[in-house]
Hints:
- This protein is mainly alpha-helical.
- It contains 3 helices and 2 strands, in the order H-H-E-E-H.
- The chain has helices at residues 2-36, 41-45, 82-92, and strands spanning 52-54, 60-63.
- The protein has a two-stranded antiparallel ribbon.
- The longest helix has 35 residues, at 2-36.
Amino acid sequence: xxxxxxxxxxxxxxxxxxxxxxxxxxxxxxxxxxxxxxxxxxxxxxxxxxxxxxxxxxxxxxxxxxxxxxxxxxxxxxxxxxxxxxxxxxxxxxxxxxxxxxxxxx
Length: 106
């Protein structure tokens, strides 16, 4: 029995070391990817927008059609219909509420 416990303890230490190594490797890869491949914010800035003129209280005085002849007006998240979020989740990630943030099945 004593020999079994010693082997079990050694196996647990090796497993913990392997898990720690894997987590550190994943962290290094994430940090390297973060700096080597930054998010292209300039592409977001280049998207066409509808110009909006507001007064000092934030009331819209003038809004125009964007350069691509479409309305692209910014709205607050609270002003959006809750059905938009539900529809996006239904189309993009049907198991959204059943995983911890990353879907291992997908």
